[in-house]
């Protein structure tokens, strides 16, 4: 709906000297510049006129807001406040947009049902990264704005009510009660079992260990010990029990995850008594990954591709585990749609 007559007044740029701009004005020079040329609140001066005309503004608005209406900046700020949860900071409005940025390195939690419900409202925009994205401090999770320069306050109240209802309902998943939020990573101590007789017997050098260490370190966790095991189930089971006794927070096994007779890892994880969440993830690369829990400790069988491909199912699940989430079968199932990453 447009603003009521009389609220916005159009004034010729040449007659606008001394008037206050009602919104940020954008300049776009393809390949050179896109940004704010004039800020909302700027008092137009004589020498601004050529610049205003050069960006196509022959008229500007002056604004006299009626009761029950909001300027785009205030609308965006209210929507951003309604959606913001833990470890989120808001930017100032810029060209009518407010961003929700992370204040920490962590896991973005963005409830899809709230975002969809808000975006179904006329003229409301919530544009987000995907939930469970790893974000750095200062990284934007959400940009929000309304489409018109002036909007009925009631529309924004609807967004606030949606946000309130979502918070009261506890969110759509673990840790999402704060709506848009970031979960910090915990520092996990992991045990690593590298299977493969070719590595155990020294026929080839281990290439898995350094990569797994690096991926854990990037999330603030560490491999406390690596053990090499031949392709023998009993030896792998022994190592699993060893790490269980050591009290590690996470157990990772590499190699032997596929279809060859020497691929013993999934069987050994079962034999050690772990509850299997899933052997197989519908993502490529990383389809042979196994997710299990042994007395509450996450156990992952990592296929050979983790050593080779920069982004696999391991890179999807590890950040969630480091953020303290329990991986369920539904989480694995959801990884297939959009999960083909050039394998
Ligand atoms: N017929 C099929 N072939 C393959 C399937 C399948 O389902 N059917 N799955 C493919 C997928 S997906 C993957 S991933 C790979 C590898 O799976 P594995 O985890 O069983 O890997 P391995 O057989 O143990 O080793 C493969 C390759 O990598 C070398 N390797 C293993 N560990 C290390 C290490 N620590 N350091 C250095 N190099 C290592 C190993 O020597 C082999 O060359 O299977 C597909 N094939
Ligand atoms: O586990 Mo494999 O990646 O799908 O290459």
Automatic annotation (TrEMBL):
One of its GO terms (cellular component) is cytosol. Pathway: Cofactor biosynthesis; molybdopterin biosynthesis. Its cofactor is Mg(2+). Keywords: Magnesium, Metal-binding, Molybdenum, Molybdenum cofactor biosynthesis, Transferase. CDD domains: MoeA_like. It catalyses: adenylyl-molybdopterin + molybdate = Mo-molybdopterin + AMP + H(+). It is an enzyme of class 2 (transferase). It comes from the Bacteria. The keyword Ligase does not apply. GO terms for molecular function: metal ion binding; molybdopterin molybdotransferase activity. GO terms for biological process: Mo-molybdopterin cofactor biosynthetic process. Residues 191-323 form the MoaB/Mog domain. Its EC number is 2.10.1.1. Pfam families: MoCF_biosynth. The keyword Metal-binding applies. Catalyzes the insertion of molybdate into adenylated molybdopterin with the concomitant release of AMP. Belongs to the MoeA family. This is Molybdopterin molybdenumtransferase. It comes from Paenibacillus aurantius.
């Amino acid at each position: 709906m447009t603003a009521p007559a009389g609220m916005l007044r159009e004034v010729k740029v040449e007659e606008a000297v001394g008037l206050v701009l009602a919104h940020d004005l954008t300049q776009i020079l393809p390949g050179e510049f896109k940004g704010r040329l004039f800020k909302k609140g700027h008092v137009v001066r004589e020498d601004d006129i050529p610049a205003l005309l050069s960006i196509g503004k022959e008229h500007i608005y002056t604004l006299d807001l009626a009761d029950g209406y909001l300027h785009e900046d205030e609308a965006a700020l209210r929507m951003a406040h309604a959606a913001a949860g833990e470890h989120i900071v808001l930017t100032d409005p810029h060209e009518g947009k407010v961003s929700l940025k992370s204040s920490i390195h962590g896991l973005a939690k963005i409830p899809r049902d709230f975002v969809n419900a808000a975006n179904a409202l006329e003229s409301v925009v919530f544009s987000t990264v995907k939930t469970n994205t790893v974000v750095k401090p200062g990284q934007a999770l959400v940009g929000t704005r309304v489409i018109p320069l002036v909007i009925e306050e009631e529309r924004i109240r609807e967004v606030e009510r949606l946000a309130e209802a979502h918070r009261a309902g506890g969110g759509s998943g673990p840790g999402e009660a704060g709506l848009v939020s970031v979960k910090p990573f915990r520092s996990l101590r992991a045990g690593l079992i590298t299977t493969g007789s070719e590595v155990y017997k020294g026929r080839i050098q281990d290439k898995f260990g350094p990569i797994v260490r690096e991926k854990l370190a990037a999330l603030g966790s560490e491999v406390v010990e690596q053990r090499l095991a031949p392709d023998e189930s009993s030896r792998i089971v022994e190592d699993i029990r060893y790490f269980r006794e050591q009290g590690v927070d996470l157990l990772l096994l590499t190699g032997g995850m596929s279809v060859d007779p020497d691929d013993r890892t999934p069987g050994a994880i079962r034999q050690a008594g772990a509850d299997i969440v899933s052997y197989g993830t519908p993502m490529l690369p990383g389809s042979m990954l196994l997710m299990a829990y042994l007395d509450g400790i996450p156990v992952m069988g990592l296929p050979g591709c983790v050593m080779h491909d920069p982004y696999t199912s391991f890179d999807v699940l590890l950040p969630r585990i480091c953020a303290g989430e329990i991986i369920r079968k539904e989480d694995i199932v959801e990884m297939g749609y959009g999960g083909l990453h050039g394998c």
